[in-house]
Amino acid sequence: MRNLLAWAAALVALGAVSLLSGRAEAAQHGMPQLNIPDFTPQLVWLAIWFVVLYVLMATVGLPRVKAIMEARHRRREDDLARAAQLKSEAEAASAAYQKALSDARAQAMATIKATADRMAAEAAERQRALAAELTAQIAAAEQRIVESKEQALADIRGVAVDVGRSVVEKLIGSAPDVARMTAAVDHSLAAEAR
């Protein structure tokens, strides 16, 4: 690089000397750009400076520009790859959350149904046992069945509220409001009773 700069400086000095010596002649010939005998030296200097500037750009300027452009391209590609990775991770997490939520709902509904079936089976067994007893005690037996059915429904409601609270707490990490959970269970039991 230093040799190239020294060579360029020597050419400039040589050109300056020839320019000073030719200045007297130029005054006799008019404008130097239009003086036909001066075309050859001008073209030679044009070629020399073109080569010097081309070499400087090729060795110094363009590699720096290329390195900057490649760094920007790599950074953009890395950012796009990272964004795609984060998007796929978010989609996977969302799918896992939705699956866990649907599994929890299905499990809660299965537990409620199993408890209701068990309570209904117990109530039916009690009713058959009481039907076999004396006819005089039928009214008292029916009253006990009604009370035990109400107790069973109250137990189902409490179990449903407890199960729902524990499922929601495991899903979101904090226990829901008891009043809202009780209202949701009452709504679900009312809908199931229809």
Note the beta-strand portion.
under 5%
Q: Determine the mean pLDDT.
A: 82
How many E strands?
0
- Structural class designation: mainly alpha
Uncertain residue ranges:
none
What does this 3D model show about the protein?
- With 194 residues, the chain is mostly helical.
- Helix content is 89%, strand content 0%.
- The chain folds into two domains: 2-83, no CATH class; 94-193, no CATH class.
- The longest helix has 93 residues, at 39-131.
- Helix 3 packs across helix 4.
- The protein has four helices and no strands.
- The model has no long low-confidence stretch (mean pLDDT 82).
Descriptors:
194 residues; single chain; 0% strand; mainly alpha; 89% helix
Summarize the structure.
The chain is mainly alpha-helical. The protein has helices at 2-29, 39-131, 138-172, 178-193.
